[in-house]
Design brief:
The chain is an alpha+beta fold and about 80 residues long. It has 2 helices and 7 strands. Strands 1-7-6-3-4 form a 5-stranded mixed β-sheet, with no helix packed on it. The protein is globular, with a radius of gyration of 12 Å. The chain starts with a strand and ends in an 8-residue tail after the last strand.
Length: about 80
C-alpha cells in the first residue's frame, strides 16, 4: 500500500479536484466517474459526492493508494 501526503494551501478542496491534481485521474470528468462508481473512500467510508469538501486531516483511499491531506499555511515553506 502506497501512502502519499497531499499538501493543500486552502481548505476545503473538492474531492474530484484532489484526484485530478494528484494525477490519479487524467481529468475532472474521470475523477467524477471514479467517485460516482464507488472507487473512492474518505475517512473509511465509500464516498459518492463528487464535490465532497476535503479538509486537512482527511484520509482518501483509492485501491492501494492512501492520500493524507495536510494544510500548508505558508507557501514560501514549500520547496
Amino acid at each position: 500500500m502506497e501512502k502519499r501526503i497531499v499538501k493543500i494551501n486552502k481548505a476545503p478542496v473538492e474531492l474530484y479536484k484532489i484526484l485530478k491534481f494528484e494525477n490519479i485521474a487524467s481529468s475532472g470528468g474521470e475523477a467524477k466517474f471514479m467517485i460516482n462508481d464507488g472507487f473512492v473512500e474518505v475517512n473509511g467510508s465509500i464516498e459518492t459526492q463528487k464535490r465532497k469538501k476535503i479538509y486537512p486531516g482527511d484520509i482518501i483511499k483509492i485501491n492501494d493508494l492512501v492520500l493524507e491531506i495536510k494544510l500548508i499555511e505558508d507557501l514560501s515553506a514549500v520547496q
